[in-house]
Amino acid sequence: MYRERSWYYADMNILTNFAVFEGGDGTGTSTQIEMLGRRFDEHGSGSFAVSLPPLFTTCEPTGNSIGRVIRSCLKGETSFRPETLARLFAADRGEHLYGPEGIVERTGRGEFVVSDRYSPSSLVYQGIACGNDLPRLLNETFPLPELIIILDLDPHIAVERIRHREEKEIFEYLEFQIRVRRSYLDLIPYYRERGARVELVDARESPETVALAVWNFIREMPIFQERE
Ligand code: TYD
Fold first, then answer.
1. Whose CA is nearest to atom 6 of ligand 1?
2. pLDDT at 228 over 90
């Protein structure tokens, strides 16, 4: 049984064995998660198999019913006040963390969990949409990941990359994405002060080069060191 913890009295609000990919839309977080998954598959098979922890990749918004409501809002099919959307993201995150087979349960049994977006997305996107206070309040009891990887890309390039997607989402326009990039950069000290490791990766490079930079950060996490 995994209960929500009060982190107020903990020295560090960090969830070990947990890393997240963050960045504006079109920076390639989903591609990088897929590439990481392939790396784990390749490492774990064949005669050169090395011992890696089991990897679980996941994303927010999740595929559960709260996540589906959020996606419909992102597509513009449903419309909520920005504050309501901030609360929905937080509710989705609470289930993602503490629900059955959730992030806390999995990391607790030694899996390495990587999420495509997590609370930093709320501080950035909902911070822009409805001010910083509510997103910070809604997310302050959630643990921080051990590692936050921010894929950093000029929003002009990022928006160009996603221009051809059939389904447009409400945050996918240049002016908003310029603010998103700035906000991620501004938040780096906020997370570092709270004990999370934050690494910025230049997402202009080829997917392979980015994947290698990402892997070099991930492999330094304690869960990998313990196995060497
Ligand atoms: P994204 O992760 O890019 O997925 P897809 O490939 O399906 O578009 O899109 C999710 C969008 O939701 C993205 O614009 C960021 C936004 N978002 C928030 O505004 N707040 C959050 O807390 C999260 C997790 C995502």
1. 30
2. no
pLDDT tens figures, 5-20:
544 444 469 999 999 9
**Residue 50: predicted pLDDT:** 63
Residues 6+ apart with CB under 8 A from 171: 25, 74, 125, 177, 180
Residue 47 pLDDT: 52
Instruction: Bin 157: left if φ > 0, else alpha if -120 < ψ < 50, else beta.
Output: alpha
Residue 9 lies in a domain: no
User: What does the block give as tokens for 102?
Assistant: 């959730």
Band of the pLDDT at 225, cuts 50, 70, 90? confident
Residue of 23, 31, 4 whose CA lies nearest to 15 = 4
Tokens at 67, concatenated: 């996540």
pTM as predicted: 0.93
Provide the token pair at 99: 């629900």
Range of the domain at 150: 14-42+53-225
Q: What gap in Å lies between CA 42 and CA 91, rounded to an integer?
A: 35
The residues lining ligand 1, judged by C-beta closer than 6 Å to any ligand atom, are 25, 30, 60-61, 74, 89, 116-117, 121-122, 125-126, 169, 171
Q: 219 in a domain, yes or no? A: yes
